[in-house]
């Protein structure tokens, strides 16, 4: 038995990070958020980890904010509150040196993690629990997964950058649909919208996610993954010309790295690659 609200397991260079409040459908508290940020940081810094999987314990991925926490906010005497101070308490930044400020916010730090982050969505992902998968690089859903924004049903708004991220994944009209109505959608509709990359039978979710993560961990260059991830997220703020210039510079750098030499060698020698990540 453990009091940890976030579990960590490393196997075959894949870190599986699990939200661990199954009795509350993994609803988020400050403790969960802090433990999650720390676990992600450790996985990012570990030389034993090349890929990260994020999932939930039990039958839910994440039911959003713990309603007891929301109740506390609702009882605040707003006439005597310093709004800027309260905002820093509720949505503190996640400082990351040498990272764009956009990727140092409460949930938007996932893109600043240098390794691929795969969301394995095992059940309901609602409210804040809907936000976490948006910032994963790839989302694989169980056929039992459900998705919903919930914000408008609580008298809230599109939180934590959802208004920026969601339209880039599903298009503006679908984003408005999900945000306006706060309706729940099933995994198949999420797949049609482009919210998830694939849907698999519930019992096969983790094996599918681990198999894919295993391929990324051993079959391709960790250095390439690191640079490509940075390129893609930075390109969201660049012109096409800027993205091309960045790619040209990175291509020259890649020609000089160990992984490029190994990438050519293993192909010519018809053997599995042994990438160093350098």
Give an overview of the whole structure.
This protein has 278 residues and is an alpha/beta fold. It has two domains: 212 residues, Alpha-Beta Complex (2-enoyl-CoA Hydratase, Chain A, domain 1); 49 residues. The protein contains eleven helices and ten strands. The strands form two sheets. A six-stranded mixed beta sheet has the order 1-2-3-5-7-10, with helices on both faces. A four-stranded mixed beta sheet has the order 4-6-8-9. A hairpin with a 2-residue loop joins strand 1 and strand 2. It is globular, with a radius of gyration of 20 Å. The model has no long low-confidence stretch (mean pLDDT 90).
How would you sum up this structure in a few lines?
With 278 residues, the protein is an alpha/beta fold. Helix content is 44%, strand content 15%.
């Amino acid at each position: 038995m453990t009091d940890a609200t976030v579990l960590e397991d490393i196997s075959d260079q894949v870190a599986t990070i699990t939200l661990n409040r199954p009795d509350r459908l993994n609803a988020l508290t400050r403790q969960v958020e802090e433990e999650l940020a720390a676990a992600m940081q450790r996985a990012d810094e570990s030389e034993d980890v090349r890929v990260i999987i994020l999932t939930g314990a039990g039958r839910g991925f994440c039911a959003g904010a713990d309603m007891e926490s929301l109740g506390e906010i609702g009882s605040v005497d707003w006439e005597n509150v310093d709004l800027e101070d309260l905002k820093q308490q509720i949505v503190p930044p996640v400082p990351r040196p040498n990272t764009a400020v956009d990727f140092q916010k409460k949930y938007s730090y996932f893109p600043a993690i240098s390794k691929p982050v795969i969301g394995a969505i095992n059940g309901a992902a609602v409210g804040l629990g809907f936000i976490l998968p948006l910032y994963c690089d790839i989302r694989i859903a169980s056929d039992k997964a459900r998705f919903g924004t919930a914000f408008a049903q609580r008298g809230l708004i599109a939180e934590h950058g959802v208004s920026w991220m969601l339209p880039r994944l599903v298009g503006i009209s679908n984003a408005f649909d999900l945000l306006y109505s706060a309706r729940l959608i099933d995994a198949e509709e999420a797949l049609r919208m482009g919210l998830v990359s694939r849907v698999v039978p519930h019992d096969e979710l983790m094996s599918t996610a681990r198999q894919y993560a295993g391929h990324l961990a051993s079959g391709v260059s960790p250095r390439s993954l690191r640079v490509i991830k940075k390129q893609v997220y930075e390109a969201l703020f660049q012109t096409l010309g800027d993205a091309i210039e960045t790619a040209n510079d990175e291509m020259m750098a890649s020609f000089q790295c160990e992984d490029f030499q190994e990438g050519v060698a293993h192909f010519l020698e018809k053997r599995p690659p042994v990438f160093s990540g350098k």
